[in-house]
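Anyone else keep sequences and structure tokens together like this?

Example one:
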Amino acid sequence: MPHNKIPSTGRYVNSGSGPTIQPIDIGHPHYVGLVDADTAFWSLVRRDSLSDVLRDSALLTSYMRKRESFRKEMHRLRFGLKPSAVYFNITERCNLNCRYCYIPGDMRRNGKHMSEDKVIEALRTLKQYFNKTIDRKLVPKIIFHGAEPLLNKKALFTAIEKFGKDFTFGVQTNTVLLDAETVAFLKSKKVSIGISLDGPTAGIVNKTRASWSGEGVFEHVMKAMELLRSYDAWSVICTVTTENMRSLPGFVNFLHKNEVPTCLLNVVRCTLPSARKIKPDDAVVARHFIDALETSYKLYKESGRKLVVGNFANILISILAPTARRLMCDISPCGGGRSFFALAPSGDIFPCSEFIGLKHFKGGNIFKDSVKDILKSGPFKLVTERKVEDIEPCRRCAIRHFCGSPCPAEAYEMNGGMNKTGSFCGFYEEQARYALRLIADNKHTAFLWDGWDRGTKEIFNVI
């Protein structure tokens, strides 16, 4: 979608037979936003010209020529995707006992590894599935994910060696076992590496992330960051809670100093009760989050080097170019079961890793059922058919396609059903307002990956 510029005069009024253009206050001194929520079309209009713009028949005529193509584009994004990635959990175990983990504690403490032979069998099945379903030019991705994949390192290494030409690989780790030898191997295979860290000091990190015996992990992460410093394909994932939200601006400064290329500052998912005890207030966490983004902008202007906050960059791209977004949590239906799915060590398949602790969302087993049938199963349909149009008050919200009412797992477990909202509605709303302010001030490219718009084109622009 383009950066749409709107004329300052004209005659247009919402009529009921045309698009419903909703004005939204974005907190900017000079501009307000106009959004057609059905198509994710948006515009920025000077406050002193709003009444004139809303009477502009030329605008309506120009937009209506393109509206159907915008609607089809959003429909393809929401309902036309096929999975091209798998979050592959090769072990149930973890050497940490993080307070907010979505995997049940007994599973993490006493669970099983997937055997090396079963890992190979599963990847062979996935290769066959993807060969039949996705464009040959697209290489499917396998992300070795939680609990802690390096506890089953031999199977992981074997898989990467054997299937290096069939998949691109990623590993998400808490770094306790990420030594120099492991880093060297992963770098040699061009594996993307995500490491978990929740703050700039041991005192902050250890409040939520520690071993079963209570030992902190901050020093492990610092050693890993030094090993990864010169590598392009690594990132830091931070889970934002009441325990660390006030440190976010300082954390961004810390990450930038340590030459981290990209990070995720994800608010805690509240699927399990333990996470809800450290759930921050929407307005408070939004304030600290935006302060962190402002810090990243200041550091970029001073140094010329970006630290991209990936989850916010995705919100920006969902506004600027919806189909170019990289993450699928902020669209409805979400990416679970549509653009990716999760494979548990038992072979059970779930729409997303967030559901692995919820047995009633098991769609089938990769060693017993076809992937095609699993993706059509009842548990998967609960997720893939969840739409903002069926959720109150989301169905009336102007930014519903910039947010997507995440997350279905926490909506179901925390709020009682798929037709309920998830958490942090106000937090996502403030991100959208802030993103539109950045676009109004032409600052948005400082928050995006270089080349983010490669392959996109402007299809609507009214000056």
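And example two:
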Amino acid sequence: MALPSRLTFLLLLIIAISFSSFALSKNYNIGAGDKIQISVYGEEDLSIDELYIDNSGNFEYPYLGQLNALNKTSEQLKNEIISGLKGDYLISPKVRVSIIGFRSFYVNGEVKKPGGYEYQPGLTVDKAIALAGGFTDRAARNKVYITQAGKDNLKNKVKLTSRVSPGDIVVIEQSFF
């Protein structure tokens, strides 16, 4: 591959990853274990570089008091902050809420290193299994299930190309032969 072709390919890859991450954050509901960043243009005192969301989802925000981020999109949280700051504190606040770290997902069962792993946008079951060290010799490669975060232990049989979301639990069952 020639140098210009490689540069073009890398540029397109970076754009695709950025777009998928942006699209995910627009529809993504913030949950316990996520890290967010709140930026208010021109107002350093109102900006938060890194905020870890705990199980309650509550956090103290300057001038507004307790806010809750659980099950809200970054857009919804941004609008809540804008409406709270607008008028009494700022004329026209410019706010950005970004997800800078996703909660973990988990891989259990017949993998070499079961446990929790940091979520990455675009993650699929086969990539999750690779992060967990791959299948063991006893793994049933056609018996892979996902329990989705917040779905009360409802296991869904999935393909290796299925998407994994933050908080999901991927389970690989044992083969009988």
